[in-house]
Every structure is written in structure tokens, then in C-alpha cells.
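INTERNAL AUDIT FORM
Audit reference: QA-55
Scope: verify that the stored structure record matches its stored sequence.
Auditor: D.O.
Record contents follow.
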Amino acid sequence: MNILVLHGINLNMFGKRDPAQYGTTTLDEINTQLSALGQTLGAQVECFQTNFEGEMAERIHRAHADSVQAVVINAGAWTHYSYGIRDALAILKCPIIEVHMSNIHAREAFRHHSVIADIAKGQIAGFGVDSYLLGLRAAVSAIQG
């Protein structure tokens, strides 16, 4: 199984940015946990982060060309307004799992809406790092499914 984990804008600042909301775990630590869980589940996990919307769209396009079997995405703020990221994801034929460290539905009103949600198989939010790990498990389940 080949699973791509996408981290969006500002997520490289995990561990430094608003620890009350996101905790102190860094993005590198999250990626290490995802890779380890992937091995346990029999999946090859590739993690990618960018702060540039066009670069994210290009990586999603490459996922289509590479026949990635599932995508786990935390698009960060792009979740709420990037139709470009949404449209790139819509090209994919594989399951998309949307994840968020914080509970976006318990935060500011602008965070309650996701432009990705209607093309995602599901959404996991509010469990900190476990949101990613649960998302990876959901992706594996969807592939096996």
C-alpha cells in the first residue's frame, strides 16, 4: 500500500505554533510516528509539507500519476478556502481522509467549513497527533475495503 500524507500551510510550525491548541509535538515527530504505524500496517507512507499552494497542487497531481492508493491530508488554513487544492484532490481516484489536530468545529466560525469535506471519505478532527494516526488507519481500511 502506498499512502501519501499531505501537510498544508504553517504546519511545519507544529511544536512551536500555539501549543495550547496544537501541542508540542513537531511535524518531524508526527511524520516519524506515521512511518512507524505505516510499517506496522503494511503501508509505505510518504509525508509532504509545503507552505506554497501551487506546490501542494503539483504534489497532488504527481500522486495521481504515481497511482497513490490513499491520501491523508491536513490542509491547514487551505481547508477553509482553497478551491485550487480541493480541485486538485478531486482529480484523484483514491480515498481522501481529511484530518485536523484541533476540533475545527469548536473553534472560530470560519474554521467550521471545509471545502475538502465533500470529496473526502471522512474527516477526523480534535485528537491531536492521534488524528493523523487515526487517519492513516482509516486510509488503510479504505484501501482494504
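Auditor finding: record pair retrieved intact. DSSP finds five helices and five strands in the chain.
Action required: none
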